[in-house]
C-alpha cells in the first residue's frame, strides 16, 4: 500500500461512516488495506466474499442474469446497506458496498476484463463500470487497480477526500452512474420493502453503545407518557441508546403514507429524540432488525405476546416465535398499563418458564401509564 492509499484509508477510518462490504471477483487488496490500518473497527462492520456461484446465489436470493455486472454490484450494495443498517451503532451514517469483477485468470477470457462497483447510502446510489485493457496487466496488477478504484469509491461514500494518481490508462474510462434520493423517495423505498428502516437521529448523540433501547408504537400522538417510559427504561437498562420506533406498515391497517410518516416524525424532532421508521409491525421481525435490543412495552402488549390466540391458537408456535426473539439477544421491559379497566403489571401474567428471563418488569413506583394515544385523540375530538 502506497502513501496516498494509506492516507485515504486513515481518512475513511476517521469518518463516522460504518460500512458493510460484499466483494467478489477482485479488489481483494482493498480489504487488506482497510483492515491493516488502525481504526478499521470504526469503519468495517462486516466484509463478505461470496466467491463461488452458489455463494453468490445464496447472498442475492436469486440467480443473477450476469454474475459480473453493474446490476449485480448494485444488488450487492443494497444488501450490504441493509446489513449495515442492522449492524451499525445508532446515529452513525452507513454505507453498503458491492463489487463484482471478471479479471484475468488462469484461463483466457473471451470477453472484456472488467469490474463493477456500487455504493449505497441513505440518499445516494452510485455505480461504475471499468473495462480494462486486455493483456496489459497480470491478475495481481488488475486486482491492484480494482482495489485502488474500490477504495476511492468507499472514500466518496464516506464523504472524505480521495486524491491519488489513478493507475487506469487514458482509454480505461470509468462509466459512472449516480442517483440522489430525497426523503420522500427513501420513505417510499422503505414502505415497499427495498430498505429495512430509516433513522432520524434527532438525539444528536453519536453513541458507541451497540444496544438499542426501543419504545415501539404508533405515536399518534407522541405524549409525555411515552417520553417518561423510555427515560425510565433507559435508567433500568443502563448502557444503551434510547430511541423510538414506528412501523410504516401495520398488521391490520393500510401502510402509513409518506406525509403521515413525516408528520409523526416532526413530533420527535421537536423534542430532540431519535426515531426509527421501520416496515415491520411484528416484534419477532423487529428482533431480527434490531438484534440485542431492549424493547420497552406496556403490560397490554406483553399480554398479547404470550397469548396463543395471536399464534392461531398454537401454544407451541408462540414458544417458538418468542424463543426466536430470545435467541437474538432481545429482552422486553414491561411497564404497568391499564388493561380492560384494571391496572396490570408483569407479575399479573403467567410467563412460560423458558421465557421468563426475557421479560423484565418496570416497577410501578417508577412508571405507570394510565392513558393511551387513542384516549388523547378521543379527548381532543380527533376520533
UniProtKB/TrEMBL annotation:
Residues 215-378 form the Cytidyltransferase-like domain. InterPro entries: CinA-like_C (IPR036653), Cyt_trans-like (IPR004821), Rossmann-like_a/b/a_fold (IPR014729). It comes from the Eukaryota. GO terms for molecular function: ATP hydrolysis activity; nicotinamide-nucleotide adenylyltransferase activity. Pfam families: CTP_transf_like. Gene3D superfamilies: CinA-like, HUPs. GO terms for cellular component: cytoplasm; nucleus. This is Uncharacterized protein LOC105156355 isoform X1. It comes from Sesamum indicum (Oriental sesame).
Amino acid at each position: 500500500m502506497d502513501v496516498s492509499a494509506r492516507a485515504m484509508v486513515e481518512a475513511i477510518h476517521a469518518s463516522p461512516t460504518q460500512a458493510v462490504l460484499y466483494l467478489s471477483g477482485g479488489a481483494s487488496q482493498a480489504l487488506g488495506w482497510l483492515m491493516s490500518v488502525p481504526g478499521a473497527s470504526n469503519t468495517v462492520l462486516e466484509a463478505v466474499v461470496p466467491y463461488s456461484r452458489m455463494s453468490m446465489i445464496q447472498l442475492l436470493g436469486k440467480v443473477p442474469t450476469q454474475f459480473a455486472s453493474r446490476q449485480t454490484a448494485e444488488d450487492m450494495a443494497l444488501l450490504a446497506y441493509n446489513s449495515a443498517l442492522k449492524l451499525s451503532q445508532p446515529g452513525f451514517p452507513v454505507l453498503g458496498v458491492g463489487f463484482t469483477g471478471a479479471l484475468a485468470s488462469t484461463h483466457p477470457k473471451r470477453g472484456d476484463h472488467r469490474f463493477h462497483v456500487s455504493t449505497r447510502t441513505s440518499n445516494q446510489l452510485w455505480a461504475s463500470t471499468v473495462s480494462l485493457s486486455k493483456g496489459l496487466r497480470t491478475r495481481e496488477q488488475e486486482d491492484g487497480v480494482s482495489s485502488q478504484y474500490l477504495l476511492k469509491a468507499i472514500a466518496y461514500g464516506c464523504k472524505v477526500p480521495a486524491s491519488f494518481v489513478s493507475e487506469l490508462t487514458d482509454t480505461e474510462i470509468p462509466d459512472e452512474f449516480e442517483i440522489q434520493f430525497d426523503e420522500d423517495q427513501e420513505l417510499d423505498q422503505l414502505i415497499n420493502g427495498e430498505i429495512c428502516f430509516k433513522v432520524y437521529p434527532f438525539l444528536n448523540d453519536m453513541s458507541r453503545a451497540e444496544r438499542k433501547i426501543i419504545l415501539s408504537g404508533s405515536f399518534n400522538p407522541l405524549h409525555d407518557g411515552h417520553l417518561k417510559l423510555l427515560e425510565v427504561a433507559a435508567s433500568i437498562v443502563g448502557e444503551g441508546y434510547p430511541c423510538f420506533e414506528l412501523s410504516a406498515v401495520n398488521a391490520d391497517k393500510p401502510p402509513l403514507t409518506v406525509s403521515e410518516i413525516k408528520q409523526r416524525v416532526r413530533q420527535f424532532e421537536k423534542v430532540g429524540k431519535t426515531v426509527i421508521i421501520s416496515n415491520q409491525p411484528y416484534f419477532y421481525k423487529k428482533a431480527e432488525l434490531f438484534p440485542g435490543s431492549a424493547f420497552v412495552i406496556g403490560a397490554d402488549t406483553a399480554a398479547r405476546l404470550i397469548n396463543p390466540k395471536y399464534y392461531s391458537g398454537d401454544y407451541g408456535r408462540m414458544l417458538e416465535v418468542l424463543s426466536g426473539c430470545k435467541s437474538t439477544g432481545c429482552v422486553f421491559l414491561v411497564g404497568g398499563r391499564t388493561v380492560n379497566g384494571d391496572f396490570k403489571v408483569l407479575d399479573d401474567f403467567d410467563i412460560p418458564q423458558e421465557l421468563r428471563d426475557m421479560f423484565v418488569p418496570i416497577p410501578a413506583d417508577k412508571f405507570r401509564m394510565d392513558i393511551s394515544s387513542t384516549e388523547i385523540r378521543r379527548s381532543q375530538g380527533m376520533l
